[in-house]
Specification:
Elements: H1 2-19, H2 22-31, H3 35-48, H4 53-65, H5 69-82, H6 86-127
């Protein structure tokens, strides 16, 4: 009887122990350069710790490293809603600012490239 009780408790508690540290595992994977694994752990952390802004921050950082800027922005905005610490708010604001600047630079580069291509097309047409 005691063995069965121990087995049931073990099976019930095992997931709690293995997933209890998903945020720190996400951060560790991110620091180690394992971005895809960090994204998976971040997604799990968001599900398991939906009230913890650090889970959204780790997932947002991982998405940013993977150049999925829109996903990163969504996760960081969710973290911003949940966060209470001014220090963390500043970190999130800086990340969002950096993502917005990246998106703005990308738009400018695309417009410049399009204008360059249009000018090249006009030149080719005039030379024909």
């Amino acid at each position: 009887m005691i063995k069965k009780l121990f087995l049931v408790l073990f099976l019930v508690c095992l997931p709690a122990f293995s997933y209890g540290n998903t945020i720190s595992q996400c951060v560790r994977q991110l620091k180690g350069g394992h971005v895809k694994h960090a994204i998976e752990l971040g997604k799990l952390a968001v599900v398991l710790h939906s009230d913890n802004p650090l889970s959204y921050m780790c997932l947002g950082f991982a998405y940013e490293k993977d150049k999925h800027y829109n996903f990163a922005k969504v996760e960081l905005q969710q973290a911003q809603i949940l966060v209470k610490s001014q220090k963390l708010k500043n970190i999130i604001d800086n990340m969002l600012f950096r993502i917005d600047n990246h998106n703005l630079n990308t738009i400018v580069q695309k417009k410049t490239l399009k204008n360059s291509n249009d000018n090249q097309t006009v030149s080719n047409f005039q030379n024909s």
